[in-house]
Design brief:
The protein has a domain at 8-91: Arc Repressor Mutant, subunit A (Orthogonal Bundle), CATH 1.10.10. Helix content is 60%, strand content 11%. It has 7 helices and 3 strands; from the N terminus they run H-H-H-E-H-H-E-E-H-H. The chain has a 3-stranded antiparallel beta sheet with strand order 1-3-2. A hairpin with a 5-residue loop joins strand 2 and strand 3. The longest helix is centred in the C-terminal third of the chain and has 27 residues, at 93-119.
Length: 123
């Protein structure tokens, strides 16, 4: 039987959330859908910038599976597919707002700590 000493998810109950929400491209996708609303694939791709189409497709599928994103297929010529954030995905907005506030307050301190660490003589 797993316990907190052997199962990291039991030791830190937020690890499952971190795995779902904070994988490499999930945060920018959810942020874009939350702030800019429903978007087509190419719009998301342009807004995120450095993501490859393959990775964007993979992340969108996973987010759809996790209930964070809704995919709507419109059978037109040419076909149109749109993505939007779900209520479950929107429920992460306070978390993102808190993290954005933390970043505004503390990222300069992190950078200063890195510089200090990197310039110290070897220990």
């Amino acid at each position: 039987m797993a316990d907190a000493a052997t199962d990291p998810e039991l030791a830190c109950p937020t690890s499952a959330v971190v795995e779902i929400v904070f994988s490499r491209w999930t945060t920018p996708i959810l942020w874009s859908l939350h702030t800019d609303g429903r978007q087509r694939f190419v719009e998301l791709e342009r807004r995120i910038g450095t993501i490859t189409p393959k990775v964007l497709t993979q992340r969108l599928r996973q987010l759809e599976r996790d209930g964070m994103v809704l995919r709507t297929y419109h059978p037109e010529v040419p076909p149109r597919v749109e993505y939007e954030i779900t209520e479950l995905g929107r429920s992460l907005a306070p978390l993102f707002a808190h993290l954005a506030g933390w970043a505004a307050t503390n990222l300069d301190k992190v950078e200063r700590a890195r510089i200090d660490y990197d310039t110290e003589p070897l220990r």
